[in-house]
Design goal:
Rossmann fold; alpha/beta; homodimer; five-stranded parallel β-sheet; 8 helices
């Protein structure tokens, strides 16, 4: 078991929460980072808080970074969230919910956080299979960022260590992610996936019709378990 | 002359202002991005505003991104700014003014801005010679970010264009930067370099003793011109 710390990017969604639970299972102390970027599903940040607590994170930083200043995404601007798409269609194109350069921004912030804490591992819950087709969920993106991290930082330049980007979900589908979460003892009822919450605050309910709800439902169905978030509703 | 737009990272310092003036001289419409990241020399943002106006920027976005949440730098935390260092010593080490992953964060934000505007060029005023030894001012860092940008984004993945990071100051020393600024008609009295301003707001004065003041003074002296910011004081 490692005794090291890792920065974990924690949106509060199924994937990032599973990634955090995996990292905890590997023995990492968790330094979680969540970003309020003007997402319409700000509800996920409440989940991030609950997940970080449930996993015993040693630190959970939540910062505001106004990506909605740039607009251009259904998640940050007055653009309709696609609904009721065929699961087979999801991932075949890059939908309106793509947020420009989001994972580059998030990983850069995670890198700043890691370097400031003397940590060299950053975990992110990206996966290439059930990822809505976002380009910044691909393995070549993650590798390119890892390379950047080792050129960008004083800690690497001074030989204190090498940065590693951990992407343990990369090759899992949603069913595999659900199974991994359960094997790590994560309470998936704490997580939040919906892009377009119905209602406000803690009382919000998932829409059930956006790509993220559809992928989540597909994952639970294929894993043969019921979704505690829905069951509780 | 290009009729295209470019995103320009504009801190308000000598280098970024010269980079912006250069881009303007190349015919780019300027979409300037400035970031309030908790820097103790927030005074530079007033300069950014004045420079953007003087260059006729079509857009100037100023956003808050709290890098001071992470601390760890003399520019964002209660750590002393090094003073009175020998100019020959500056750049030989990585000083306390290094901000973890700052240029990675700034370029990622610029990339988000560029993609949201359909632009493919991002200009940054980094230079490797008189840069205080920061690792994220080196050409290999800039190349690695350019590579990342072309993997990270929907626009690149969909073949709409290729991102280019323009770093026109890379091989210039401070004297060369001063000369370039003057040849572009930039009013250098609008810019601000000091890390540790004495006094508040528009009335603040440069300390004259931090690395950034020393490098600036060296540049003006070597270019054989007087600094209008100091002359005005």
């Amino acid at each position: 078991m490692s005794e090291r710390g890792a920065v974990v990017l924690l949106s509060g969604g199924l994937d990032s929460a599973t990634c955090a639970a995996w990292a905890r299972g590997q023995g990492y102390r968790l330094h979680c980072l969540s970003v309020a970027y003007g997402q319409r599903h700000e509800r996920e940040l409440l989940s991030a808080q609950r997940v970080a607590e449930s996993l015993g994170a040693v630190e959970h930083l939540m910062i505001n970074v106004p990506l909605d200043s740039f607009g251009h995404s259904a998640l940050t601007a007055a653009i309709a969230v696609p609904k009721d798409r065929d699961p087979g269609q999801i991932g075949a194109d890059i939908p309106a919910t793509y947020v420009p350069a989001r994972n580059s921004v998030l990983l850069s912030l995670a890198l700043a956080f890691a370097e400031s804490r003397g940590l060299f591992e950053i975990a992110i819950g990206v996966n290439r299979l059930d990822c809505s087709g976002y380009p910044d969920c691909r393995p070549e993106f993650v590798s390119a960022f890892e390379r950047l991290a080792n050129l960008a930082t004083a800690a690497a330049a001074q030989g204190q260590g090498s940065y590693r980007i951990l992407a343990p979900l990369m090759d899992l589908d949603k069913a595999g992610i659900v199974r991994l979460a359960l094997s790590c003892g994560l309470d998936l009822g704490l997580t939040w996936s919906c892009y377009d919450p119905q209602g406000a605050g803690a009382a919000a309910r998932p829409c059930g019709r956006c790509d993220s709800c559809i992928l989540r439902a597909k994952g639970f169905a294929a894993a043969g378990v019921s979704d505690p978030l829905i069951a509780a509703g």
